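Two proteins were folded this term; both appear here.
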Amino acid sequence: MLNNENQEIYNHINSVRVRSFRNHNDIELSPGKSSVLIVGNNGVGKTSILEALSIFSHGKGIRNAKFYDMIKNDKESFLVDISLSTSGDFSWCYRTSYSKKSRNRKILINDKEISANNARKNIPMLWIAPYTERIFLGSSSMRRNFLDRLVVIFDNEHSVRLNEYDKNLKQRTKLLKDGVNDLSWLEVLEDHLAKLSVAISSSRLETINRLTKYLNNSIKYFPRIDLSFSGSIETRLENEPALDIEETLVKDYFKSREVDAILGGSRIGCHKTDLIIKNLEKNLNAELCSSGEQKSLLISIVLATAIAFKEYSRKSPIILLDEIFTHLDLSRKSNLLEKLMEIKSQIWVTATEKESFFQNKENFWYHNLEGNKIKNA
């Protein structure tokens, strides 16, 4: 089969069926290649539909929740099916389920079980939701997790490295806490942690560099942004060889054993990174900006990521926007929509009412959600 390297790939979720998920018993949407606007009152389950889609791309999904909590209260498991097509009109049938009894999540593609890591390779996805908007005032871990989700779009193995890092760090913490005098195993763990820290930080730095040219050149009606790191391994990588940093980290892990045994965790490593987000229009860090300005900053970052990913991979990511148009003026709303259409992303939008600027958007599939039932809008 001939492969055209210049062919652009447009991902579309043709249909989704959600069963026993959150407050939904059984609900199905079939937009085909159209983008989607779901309109409904608060609490009817609009966000839950986006969450069901998002767990194919990132395990904890748009709400950063546990699978157990996604199951409908009176049910024992949930089931989500999606049909995904590309520009070549080839369809992939994905299914994911989670059971309270087994506490095990399964993912199948065309009836063959696969890993979550393999699933997200074919479903590049970005989103903005109320949870995401809290990254500016929340802990450094929220900003770090937000950044890592952007990195995974470009580097799917990033999530594998993060999981391996977390596993090694927990093993080291347990050894130190229990006073296990296994120096050789500690040395192996610390060597792995140093290598993983540098690899993870390198991917983060590379992603920020990919986004910089789009963030420094303002997207119309949205602020220019500077993204940087605070005293982190990523900062060091801009000036020091990776191998030198690995060697230093190994020594630092050794020196911090006594303190880490008392306090737990580790004082050093890629899990200490913090992302600094600055509004260049106001010359202010994001946490000092208004809530409306913070939303605009977040949109700028996600738009830049979508554009950079399209340029890098020639694939259009699917975009989920949960109540995104609140507090945005008409100019920003319209320009955001036009920009997303320009990169030919399929967009899934929720809103409490049908916005007037959607009226002439023929490539949108409009539906009302009432009492867990979808109706034509």
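Next, the second protein.
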Amino acid sequence: MNLASLKGRVRAVGFDLDGTLIDTLPDIAAAANAMLSDLRRPVVPEEVVRGYIGDGIARLTKRLLTGTLNGEPDEALFEQALHVFEGHYFDGVSRESRPFPDVVSGLERLRGAGLRLACITNKAERFTVALLRAQGMAPQFDLVLSGDSLPKKKPDPLPLLHACEHFGVSTSEFLFVGDSPNDMAAARAAGCPVVCVPYGYTGGQDVRDLGADAIVSSISDLAVLIT
């Protein structure tokens, strides 16, 4: 897709959060290893945590406990671990996390062009809101949908369809920007054009294999191309 062809056609843009707007890996990894240490389990390298991000903290906790993407740990251990993890993460949700380069300027340009903006993430609402507020980014978004805002989350298309309805736009007028297979799958199922950034958390996949319509080096570059 030639992104310039979207100029004048896109009326709203949705963004994934972790790995797309903000580099949250340092704080997620710190909370993960604090949890593992509290449970007297071996800590893991940050790159291992990177590969586990994308499906919310509950699934991330299960992956940390089992060392597999879809493993199911002992239920009592999982509940304990999740409680500990959430406590550590809430305390340090924005300690080291920072927007990726050119994110803020890109969002400002998009808003200045009159586009409506949404943040659509699988992160639970209490972490999402705390993070966006701490980073001073909450005012940039007309809509924030977290992993527990609706009955279903990405890769289901429901959050993107909800955003389209909220903004009163068609799916072809709603561009979604993400970094992961979940983002691509949700956009495809919703019928929205989708763009991928190359610096995020792809679950170990090559970004070129995720199925996006285009790859942009930064949110600022995207803004230049479509406004």
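The chain has a mean pLDDT of 96. The beta strands are 12-15, 22-23, 98-99, 116-120, 143-145, 174-178, 194-196, 214-215. These notes refer to the second protein only.
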